[in-house]
């Protein structure tokens, strides 16, 4: 599910294609950093270290991967700046919408700070997207009639315009309903703690 999730995040979050490719530098740096974090949790000698030392080792192991991610995300931001210029509000990707919100609120971020926010999108969206896809396919496998109907809806779209149609859930209402029902039954983030910006 990793490559499919990366491609979905690339299209929906950043407005680009190719994030799921094996040679994508941004995705490879992200996956390499995840391996560093995994080692932190699995290697017995790492678990035995005091927390400050553990964080130092992880930072030394993973910093070059984070630097690569930031470099690649800065390139993505420039791409989205161009691609979003002619897009209407309903079709803008998350990076473009975040930039618009910053302008409305008068928030100024440097290129590196904005790149770090893009990296955060990837960290937040990767596991949740993968989990949702896994549950959706598992449920479709158990309900063949739903699978057939969803397949028929997607198959009715001409191949040359499929990506365009998939980018807007309103174009495929049954598939959209399948995904929403998956999120209802198996939410990847079942609880969100909010904090008010203002005193009540």
3D architecture notes:
Helix 2 packs antiparallel against helix 4 and helix 6 crosses helix 9. The chain is built from nine helices and no strands. The N and C termini lie far apart (43 Å). It has 200 residues and is mainly alpha-helical. It is 71% helix and 0% strand. The mean pLDDT is 83.
| Computed CA radius of gyration, to the nearest angstrom | 19 Å
String of helices and strands: HHHHHHHHH
Cα(first) to Cα(last) distance is 43 Å
Helix content: over 70%
Structural class: mainly alpha
**Record field, number of beta strands:** 0
Main β-sheet: number of strands, strand sense, barrel status?
none
Helix run count: 9
| Molecular shape | globular
Stretches where pLDDT is under 50 for at least 5 consecutive residues are none
The chain-level mean pLDDT equals 83
How much of the sequence lies in strands comes to: under 5%
Concise overview:
The chain is mainly alpha-helical and 200 residues long.
What structural keywords apply?
200 residues, mainly alpha, 9 helices, 0% strand, globular
Strand-helix topology:
Blueprint: H1 2-14, H2 25-42, H3 44-47, H4 51-83, H5 94-105, H6 111-142, H7 144-155, H8 162-166, H9 173-185
């Amino acid at each position: 599910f990793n490559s499919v999730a990366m491609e979905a995040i690339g299209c929906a979050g950043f407005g680009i294609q190719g994030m799921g490719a094996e040679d994508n530098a941004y995705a490879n740096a992200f996956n390499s950093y995840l391996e560093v974090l995994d080692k932190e949790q699995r290697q017995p000698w790492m678990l035995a270290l005091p927390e400050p030392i553990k964080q130092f080792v992880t930072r030394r192991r993973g910093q070059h991967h984070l630097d690569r991610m930031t470099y690649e995300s800065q390139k993505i931001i420039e791409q989205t700046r161009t691609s979003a210029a002619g897009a209407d509000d309903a079709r803008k990707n998350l990076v473009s919408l975040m930039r618009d919100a910053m302008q409305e609120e008068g928030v100024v971020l440097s290129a590196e700070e904005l790149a770090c926010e893009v990296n955060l999108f990837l960290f937040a969206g990767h596991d949740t997207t993968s989990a949702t896809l896994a549950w959706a396919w598992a449920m479709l496998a158990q309900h063949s009639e739903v699978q057939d109907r969803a397949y028929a809806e997607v198959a009715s779209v001409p191949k040359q315009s499929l990506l365009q149609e998939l980018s807007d859930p309103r174009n495929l209402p049954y598939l959209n309903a399948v995904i929403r029902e998956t999120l209802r039954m198996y939410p990847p983030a079942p609880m969100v703690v909010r904090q008010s910006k203002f005193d009540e």
